[in-house]
Amino acid sequence: MKRFLSTCAALAAFAMPVAAMDDDIVKVAATGSVAETMDALEAAVTKAGVAVFARIDHGAGAKSVDMDLGDSQLLIFGSPKIGTPAMQDDPLAGLYLPLKVLVYQDAEGKVWLAYENPTDMLDDLTIANDAAYLGKMAGALGKLTGVAAGQ
């Protein structure tokens, strides 16, 4: 069953509209503005019954100190039902969880959703690469960012 879940998560990740992967970072091209994309992501996370812990506007933070960063927002969210088993396997997983997705506009004006692949994110810990919760995290991130991207 674990192999089946891992395979399904891997296939789901490849089916998502991933535009680029930089090492451990998955980037998904979005069709809306940063604010629209973040609103869509937050709505998708909430609709899925997942807790939103924080929405951080990095661009506004930069403006508050008279610096320019451009549009960039981070959503922090998670499910204790999925994250707790990871922290039970290795308490240091708490350094990486809850999950995070960054929505930002690049220098060319393109809007992206970006997140770290959970298997890569936790690969320095004593967590098995085939742990069922890793597949669930990856599948959720792929689905939620796909919905938010408008694809």
TrEMBL record:
Keywords in UniProt for this one?
Signal
Q: Where are the transmembrane segments?
A: none
Q: Which residues form the DUF302 domain?
A: 56-118
Task: Name the Pfam families for this protein.
Answer: DUF302
Per its UniProt record, what InterPro entries does this chain match? DUF302, TT1751-like_sf
Q: Which residues form the signal peptide?
A: 1-20
Q: What is this protein called?
A: Uncharacterized protein (DUF302 family)
**Organism of origin:** Shimia isoporae
